[in-house]
Every structure is written in C-alpha cells, then in structure tokens.
Amino acid sequence: MSKDLRLSRMLHVLIHMAEYEGAATSQAIAVTLNTNPVVVRRTMAGLRQRGLVLSEKGHHGGWRLTRPLDRITLRDIHEALGPGSVFALGPARDHPACLVEQAVNASLAIAFARAEAVLLQELGSRTLAEVRQDFEDLRAGRSPHDAHPS
Length: 150
Known about the structure:
This protein has one domain: Arc Repressor Mutant, subunit A. Helices cover 53% and strands 5% of the residues. It has six helices and two strands. The chain has helices spanning 6-19, 26-33, 37-49, 74-80, 99-124, 128-139, and strands at residues 53-56, 62-65. The protein has a two-stranded antiparallel ribbon. α2 (26-33) crosses α3 and α4 (74-80) crosses α5 (99-124). One of its GO terms (cellular component) is cytosol. It comes from Rubellimicrobium rubrum. InterPro entries: Tscrpt_reg_Rrf2, WH-like_DNA-bd_sf, WH_DNA-bd_sf.
C-alpha cells in the first residue's frame, strides 16, 4: 500500500510560497513536486476552498497564501486536502460474516479512531511558522525546534 504524501508535499510548497516575492505558478510548483500542473491545480483548489490560498489569473498570476504561516496549522492543510485515512492500516473485509473478523475490525476501529484523534490534535497545535523555524534551525546547523516534546 502506498503512502499518501500530499500533506508533506503541500507543507513543503506552502513554506516555500511564503518566501516568494510574487505568486507561485502551478507549473513552478509542479516542477518542485515532480508532478503535473493539473495535479497541482486540483490539490490547491481544496486549499483555496478553505481560504488558505488564492489564485490569480494573468501574466503574473499564480497561487498566494492568504494569511501568515503562524495562522495556518498542519491540520488546516490536512483537512483542506480532502478525505483520506491518516493511516495505511485498515480492517480486513475478506470474511464479513466471520465473527472473529467482526471482533477484530471493531477493536481496530476503536484504536484507529483514538489514534487519529491524537494525531489531529497534534496537527492542530503546530503551525507552518513552527515548521519554517525548524527549517531555519537546520539551516543554521542547530537541532530543529521541537515545540511539543514527548
């Protein structure tokens, strides 16, 4: 099962966008992500619907952030990217009539729901500004700032 890299990739792009003088074109973002501009536009549309970015048409058009990085959480981006499980794990559906499979799936559903709630809480407590600071720390040769130690 492949991993969903959209969140990681969009966080990367948005932090770069904060540094741009102008708008970031879908083509430029596509080159960064090694993908097609159509995929970028489709992905960015969810961010636009949530009010995180705006798109400008024309010669100097492209994508811009609508607010500072300290007002965008990782959860904001996750939710804007649309539905999808945060885990690659899932219940088996090989034998739906089997009571053992039903019990296993019920137990896993509870565990996944609890784990997802914790993850979403963590994503909601971390901003893009904090991630950018981690980058600045790495660039300066320091260990990244960890605002939420275990």
